Amino acid sequence: MAATSTAPSLPPALADAVRDDASLRRFLHGLPGVDQVGVEQRAAGLGTRSIKKAAKLWAIDTAISMVDLTTLEGADTPGKVRSLAAKARRPDPERPEVPKVAAVCVYPDMVATAVQELQGTGINVASVATAFPSGRSSLKVKLEDTAFAVDAGATEIDMVIDRGAFLSGRYGQVFDEIVQVKHACGDAHLKVILETGELATYDNVRRASWLALLAGGDFIKTSTGKVTPAATLPVTHVMLQAVRDWRTQTGQLRGVKPAGGIRATKDAIKYLVAVHEVAGPEWLTPDLFRFGASTLLNDLLMQRRTQLEGHYSGPDYVTVD
């Protein structure tokens, strides 16, 4: 662990945990194990909560305000990013009261276009970095990737951890990479993508969550959206427990971002219920909870119209990404 000199300031008990590789391993493997049956049952139970009409409209607007509107395709063009930015600013052109989204997320070479289109709106420009989505490159390249996006104006960086290093038990290497990427972010917020679909167990998700928090991640994020399964409610529960317990030990608030596979309003509402019940109501803000999504926004807009107009408008009434 070579980068501890630039690691975040931690309370003494947690500072001891990152003193060296052996200490970090002891800490992570000393975390309480996750009760698989219990977390899955609780996730299923919260998913059955009924939401009254007024609360549902509030939940839809809250979810819209938490969306990181995303395009991460090899065929992305400046024109597509400009269209996405227009939708981010005004999700429903016929209803100006609809909240704007939290961020637009693009590849580093598209950041400058997004920044130009979103200037003065308060909408963040997020960029994936660190050899997204695989994370398979040298640390030098990962840091240059991050710096390129930040220099172009990105206010948020979504990095991927080296899952091979994590699964091989090289926790110090993963820790140091996060610390150095955080340093390269400057004032930009760092979201650490765990790619939970490749971590195999809830215990690994808990360890990876704490590892990212210890290294200074502002958010922990489930997935790149390129691996199946992506976000799931039980995995998000485990990550919400981690940020809740982190706050208990440090007094610091850190965020959670489920990404990939969340397409329907009913599912987004289940996640909001989980946020309230597992972490707490303070997390019901775009500063601490995000949805990594693109198709979800369209369904949120259609369901919002249904709540207000009493009938289903259909997809023709919203703009296509």
Describe the structure concisely:
The protein is an alpha/beta fold. The protein has helices spanning 12-17, 21-29, 36-46, 53-65, 78-89, 111-118, 139-151, 163-167, 171-185, 202-214, 233-250, 265-279, 295-309; strands at residues 67-70, 103-106, 124-128, 156-160, 189-193, 219-221, 255-257, 291-293.
Structural features, described:
- This protein has 321 residues and is an alpha/beta fold.
- The protein has a single domain, classed as Alpha-Beta Barrel (TIM Barrel), CATH 3.20.20.
- Helix content is 48%, strand content 10%.
- The longest helix is centred in the last third of the chain and has 18 residues, at 233-250.
- The radius of gyration is 19 Å and the shape is globular.
- The chain has an eight-stranded parallel β-sheet with strand order 7-6-5-4-3-2-1-8.
- The protein contains 13 helices and eight strands.
- Helix 3 (36-46) packs across helix 11.
